[in-house]
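Saturday, quiet lab. Running sequence design on the structure tokens for the scaffold JK sent over.
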């Protein structure tokens, strides 16, 4: 019993309540706010946004406009005796309906792939997908305009 009483007396004394080898106190990055700024922390995903937000509507409208311009220029060049350089589009270039379905399918594919990335939480890839198509279609339109 004497041993229990001495432990109780030691714990009541503030000077004796500190252990001989205290563990070092390391500040937590979560407590300091560093985790909120770090994209590498697994639990720190960006806030979810609606798929049809202003940025996506703008990107998809640009994709559709550039694909429409590419369709019109490609159709015009093919009517004047030119040839399609893209091997995938060349398969559909035999008719206007086939060519139109190629460009409508391309636009739908960009929107669909972007939606897939959105659903999986890959929001950067969601935005990059239409940007890549915008770059490729812009190049195609510029090339068509320079080689008419």
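Result came back. Writing it out in full:
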């Amino acid at each position: 019993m004497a041993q229990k009483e001495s432990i109780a007396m030691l714990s009541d004394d503030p000077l004796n309540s500190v252990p001989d080898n205290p563990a070092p106190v390391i500040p937590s990055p979560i407590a300091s706010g560093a985790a909120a700024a770090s994209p590498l922390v697994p639990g720190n995903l960006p806030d979810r946004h609606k798929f049809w937000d202003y940025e996506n509507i703008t990107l998809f409208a640009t994709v559709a406009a550039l694909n429409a311009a590419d369709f019109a220029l490609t159709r015009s060049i093919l009517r004047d005796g030119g040839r399609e350089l893209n091997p995938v589009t060349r398969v559909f270039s035999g008719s206007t309906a086939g060519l139109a379905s190629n460009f409508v399918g391309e636009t739908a594919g960009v929107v669909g792939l972007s939606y897939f990335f959105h659903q999986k939480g890959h929001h950067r890839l969601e935005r990059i997908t239409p940007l890549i198509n915008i770059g490729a279609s812009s190049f195609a339109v510029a090339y068509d305009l320079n080689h008419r």
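Notes for JK: The chain is about 70% helix and 0% strand. The chain has two domains: 2-37, 54-146. Ask whether to fix the surface positions before the next round.
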